[in-house]
Design goal:
Layout (H helix, E strand, L loop, with lengths): L5 E3 L9 H9 L4 E4 L3 H10 L6 H6 L5 H11 L23 H19 L6 E6 L6 H10 L4 E5 L6 H8 L5 E4 L2 E2 L10 E4 L16 E6 L2 H10 L4 E5 L32 H6 L4 E4 L5 H9 L4 E4 L1 H4 L8 H13 L4 E4 L9 E4 L8 H6 L11 E4 L5 E4 L5 H6 L4 H4 L5 H8 L5 E2 L3 E2 L26 H9 L10
Parallel strand pairs: 1-11, 2-3, 3-4, 4-8, 6-14, 8-9, 9-10, 10-11
Antiparallel strand pairs: 5-7, 12-13, 14-15, 16-17
Helix pairs in contact: 1-5, 2-5, 5-6, 10-17
Length: about 475
């Protein structure tokens, strides 16, 4: 299996959906689906009606038809729910996941990867955030059941994942050590989450192949550590120009006059050290033109990862309203992207596109009543009685303070979970009147995607992006 020349970015929460990944993979490159919040994505699609029967088709190919069809019947609404009706909730995750939570994560990942791989023999990957740990194990297992070829992970130090892949490939029980904020810094006891494929006897009959693992990093030091201490298969070297979560600046956080983090020479990756590792690597963050691909190849890279141009193409998961606003902005050349230090409860800087009617507006943000009903970015902490608690600086302030948090930590925090689901058309409705507002992320080069729009066109395709980035450096296409 040759390494891909172009990796389509695994943009979070269904922006990198199966339709986009399938289109890219069929062109001979690596299409990547997002595994973030995949259980909620699955059940909200079902409640919207599964109008074309895509999920039903994937369910028919799941190794445990009884389990998959039970979930389908539980959440599917024929014709789709009413626009003013709320989506049905699913269990929030905990250290010990419920059986229902595991089933939804397994099936959600399976469905997304299965549909992305359907009808061609190209490569498909899935992207996860190391920062979101609780759903990781069953989500990976579901993707492997569908034959995923690559697994990519960033936003943290994914040192444990290669061993997880080795273990799950043999259907053996696996654990994952969790990041926990401790009230008592002298406490050394580890907290782990566990998953056992043996609890799913109809699934362990499936033959699994370990996918290649690509770590998304922003420093040569982290790459060197992962290459030395875990069985990583390659790296995406992502700089701070990329959309979504960015690594904080090295050497302490300093802000410019706009309140954005200042990145300097210490944040540049030493590609000489990366090359010395002898592993494939791809460059990301502004590498979305033919000239940049050639530059990456000249630096010894296997290729590039591209996100923002794919994010707003016809096949991506952003809602039509979001795409329209963004493309109107880029045609005018005045779309603004800011790196917000406080927006994400993950404590990673997060890039936000300024769009009317979204959480990027101060008035829109302040009009939202704080709630935490999805909880993917909650932090684990040790309570005074030694048990594990869950808190998020984006939740109601009083609740956060009761859990030992500080008021300062709540300032400016946005609900990424609800905002990102809204951006892809799955906005929750509250009390029949309030609809969760979108939060949109993109890289700093977003205005440059105007070049993919023909003079008489208001949209563009994934193929247009591939042609613009790859040019004459082609890979074979696969028949759909």
């Amino acid at each position: 299996m040759s390494e891909p020349l172009l990796i389509q970015g695994g943009m979070g929460v269904a922006v990198s959906n199966w339709k986009l990944a399938r289109a890219v993979s069929a062109e001979g490159h690596l299409g990547v689906v997002s595994g973030t919040m995949i259980d909620n994505v699955l059940v909200r699609r079902l409640q919207d009606g599964d109008h074309f029967g895509d999920i039903k088709r994937a369910v028919a190919n799941f190794p445990d038809r009884i389990m998959a069809e039970r979930i389908y019947r539980r959440y599917h609404i024929s014709g789709g729910k009413a626009a003013d009706s709320p989506y049905r909730s699913i269990p929030m995750h905990s250290v010990k996941l419920s059986r229902e939570a595991e089933e939804l994560l397994i099936l959600g990942s399976f469905v997304e990867v299965f549909l992305a791989k359907e009808g061609h023999s190209g490569l498909v990957g899935i992207n996860f955030l190391e920062k979101i740990q609780l759903p990781t194990l069953p989500s990976i297992y579901g993707a492997m059941l569908a034959g995923v070829d690559y697994l990519l992970m960033g936003a943290g130090i994914p040192r444990q994942i290669p061993e997880v892949l080795d273990t799950l490939a043999e259907h053996r029980p696996v654990s994952l050590r969790l990041n926990v904020e401790r009230c008592d810094p002298t406490t050394s006891e580890e907290v782990s989450t566990y998953f056992s494929p043996e609890d799913f006897p109809h699934l362990i009959q499936s033959h699994l192949t370990r996918p290649k693992f690509i770590a998304i990093v922003s420093s040569s030091t982290l790459a060197e550590m992962l290459a030395k201490k875990s069985k990583v298969d390659g790296f995406v070297i992502e700089n701070h120009l990329a959309g979504g979560h960015n690594a904080p600046p090295r050497g302490g956080l300093k802000l410019d006059e706009k309140g954005e983090p200042i990145y300097g020479k210490r944040d540049l990756v030493d590609l000489g050290k990366i090359r010395a590792l002898g592993l494939p690597f791809w460059l990301a963050g502004g590498y979305d033109s033919e000239g940049m691909l050639e530059e990456a190849l000249s630096q010894g890279a296997s290729g590039v990862q591209v996100g923002t141009p794919f994010a707003f193409c016809r096949e991506s998961g952003f809602s039509d309203d979001v795409k329209k606003l963004v493309l109107q902005g880029v045609q005018a050349g005045d779309l603004s992207v800011s790196t917000e230090v406080l927006a994400s409860s993950s404590n990673y800087p997060f890039k936000v596109v300024s769009l009317p009617g979204t959480l990027s507006e101060k008035a829109t943000y302040e009009s939202r009543e704080r709630t935490c009903d999805l909880g993917y970015l909650r932090t684990l902490y040790v309570k005074s009685d030694g048990s594990i608690g869950y808190r998020c600086p984006g939740e109601p302030v009083a609740n956060f303070l009761k859990k030992g948090g500080t008021k300062e930590d709540t300032a400016g925090r946005k609900c990424l979970c609800n905002g990102l689901l809204s951006a892809v058309g799955y906005a929750q409705v509250r009390r029949g009147t309030y609809v969760e507002k979108a939060l949109v992320t993109a890289g700093v080069s977003v205005n440059e995607i105007a070049r993919y729009l023909a003079p008489d066109q208001t949209s563009y395709s994934a193929r247009d992006v591939i042609e613009g980035v790859v040019g004459n450096l082609r890979r074979p296409r696969y028949v759909l």
